[in-house]
Structures are given as C-alpha cells and as structure tokens.
Amino acid sequence: MTPGARISAAIAVIDRVASGEPAEKALTNWARGARYAGSKDRAAVRDHVFDVLRRWRSTAASGAAETGRGRMIGLLRQDGPPPESLFDGQGHAPAPLSEAERAAGGTQDGAAARDMPDWLWPQFARDLGPRADPVAQALRHRAPVFVRVNTLRADVEGARAALAEEGIEARPASLSPDALEIIAGARSIARGAAFAGGLVEMQDAASQAVVDALPLVPGMRVLDYCAGGGGKALAMAARLGGGPVAVHDADPARMRDVPARATRAGADLRIVDHPRRDWDLVLCDVPCSGSGAWRRAPEGKWRLTQGALDALCRTQADILDRAAPLVAPGGVLAYATCSVLACENMQAVERFIAGHPGWTLRDSRSFLPGPEGDGLFLAVLAHTG
Ligand SMILES: C[S@@+](CC[C@H](N)C(=O)[O-])C[C@H]1O[C@@H](n2cnc3c(N)ncnc32)[C@H](O)[C@@H]1O
Fold first, then answer.
1. Total number of domains in the chain
2. What processes does the entry annotate via GO biological process terms (predicted)?
3. If you measure from the C-alpha of residue 302 to the centroid of ligand 1, how many angstroms do you get, rounded to a whole number?
4. Which of 376, 242, 383 shows the shortest CA–CA distance to 325?
C-alpha cells in the first residue's frame, strides 16, 4: 500500500470508531477485507488510528472536521508531512484538499488543546498541579516499549543479547533493574525466540517498579487478588525465586492465559477460586480509569465519565474491604492502580485507613507517564492492631 492508501484506510477505520466500534475491532474488520495489506501496512494504519485516538479533539480542530478525513488532515498538520503531499487522489490516496479544507484548521486552548475531556481537566489539573500539563501532553504521544527480563530464565545482559540476535535493540531502563526499553524491532518481540523461551515479558517499566517496591521475601505466602492476565504475578514470582504466587480474579476468564504464561516463564502460579486468609502479602491491582496508561489505551480517555469514575472508586473500596481480612497478622496489603487521579490513589487509601482501624500506610509511590514509563500508584499498608 502507498502512504496515501494507508491514510485512506485509517480514515475509514476512524469513521467506524467514531460511530461506536471499538478500535481493535474496527482494525480487525478492515484487515479482514484488505488481504492485500501486508504486516507493515497494517502496522502503519494502526499507528495512524491510535495517533488520532490519543488526540481525538485536537486533530479534529486542526483538520476542522469531526470526521476521519478531518482528523487525519489534522494529525498530519500536527506531525507532518503536510496533508497536501499525501491527499493527492492518486491510486487509493484520499482526494486532494478542498479550498475550504486548505483554509480551515485552528488552534485551541484549555482541555481541548491537551486532548482531555472537558469534565475531567479541572480535576486532573487540581490533582497533578504543575505536572498536569506535561502529563496530559505525554498522554498525547506514543508510549515507549519495555520488556521485563525474567530472571528465572536469563540475566539482563543475556536477554539483551538474545533480543539483539533477533534484530531487536534494547537498552537498560531507569525505573527497574530488570527492565529493558526496546529501541528498535518492538513489533517482532512477540514472534521471537526470546519471548517464546520466557526470557522476556512485555511489561511497562513503571509496572515493574511497582513490583520491585513490594516487600517480597522468598517463602512468603503471596496472593494476587486481581491477577488478570498475570503480569504482576509473574513479576512477583520472579522476585520469589519462582513462586509460588496464588492468583485470583473476580472474572476467572481474565486469567485464561495465566497457565501458559507461567509455564513459559518457569513460574509457579496457582489459581485460587475462593481465597481464604492467611497471606503474608495480598496485592490488589485494582480495576481503574487507566489514566496513567491512556497512551496505550486511548479510547479509555474518551469513554470515562464522572459516573464511571465514581463506580470505579466504589469497586476499588469494595476490593480493599474484601482483601484486607485475608492478610495474616503482620502481613501487608498492597494497593496498585495505573491511574494518576487522586480519587483512585491516595484518597482511596486515606478513605480505607479512616474506615479500617489498625491499618497504616507503610510506603507509597507515584509514577507519572513519561519517557520512563506509564503512570502508576502503589500503596503498601500494614496492620498494626
Ligand atoms: C488492572 S487489572 C489487573 C492486571 C494484572 N494484575 C496484571 O498485572 O496483568 C484488574 C483486574 O481486577 C479484576 N477485578 C475486578 N473486580 C474484582 C473484584 N471484586 N475482585 C477481584 N478481582 C476483581 C478484573 O477482572 C481485572 O482482571
């Protein structure tokens, strides 16, 4: 496909997303009907679509239309090359810009310029203070790619060398000693031998740093209460010399890949349907707005409403209520989100402590989205009663 044809494809997918179809589904549907598209074409179309999703408001303003075409014109106006060079009507490229399209295109301020929802921006600005603007800007751009070196299978230099043999270039990441940032070849990782052999796992560097900050000691009885796909459980198992780590999720289907991932990693993860007490460490990596990771999942930014955020906060409180009694005397309760919003982070912890005498905050960490990783929050609580 030519660069122009890729833009035409992205325009069609963006229009489907605008009419309510999830982006992944719209991309899959497009790819099914586009057998001529190779893997590089599919990757390029996907990049255009996700670039626009991250900047849904500002690209519409720059392109002066809330359509796929307008948004792609706007994206090119922001990032280049000039839209006139690709909208030339040749082959499958989009039609040339009309006089009106050439003349249109504006700038914005406030929430729109930061590609934030109007309702959320005041809260975001209050919560993050002087960091609000750089964080909002970071969320408008692609996230760096990181892997976690699985120390059960390799050391960092060994994993780096194995990746290099596959043409994947990596360098040490600052947030975690086991994290590598992928500089080139990121799209090949999941198909490669280093990944298949369990030497590396895809995991954001801040997610790795959260697990690094947990007070884990081999021999501890550890429960991952919201295990999902098991990313943090695998990292915890590596810290414990292989495990075991008990994994639980209210939706067991979310853990369907856990056995295969554990086998690949050489980790001992044990699914527990109805966890009972006495765990030395219970991790609650709760469902959240995902605001710290909106670079990776930008649809979440536009889907979130005040009502949905309030409901998430109630779920987070409920999970802490259920998990706290599972902690053994002297054990710890760890609470993690991939959010930067205070109501899901420190305020949630303060509400829990206020309602649960004997629990105190032992440690907390906040990571903001940027070149080093995503935005995450961790609180480690101990029971002193
Ligand atoms: C942020 S995801 C977990 C990600 C996972 N820890 C990882 O690192 O890959 C949150 C998980 O919490 C689960 N969940 C939601 N409500 C829950 C509840 N009441 N009890 C336990 N798990 C719950 C969801 O099904 C979801 O899989």
1. 3
2. RNA methylation
3. 21
4. 383
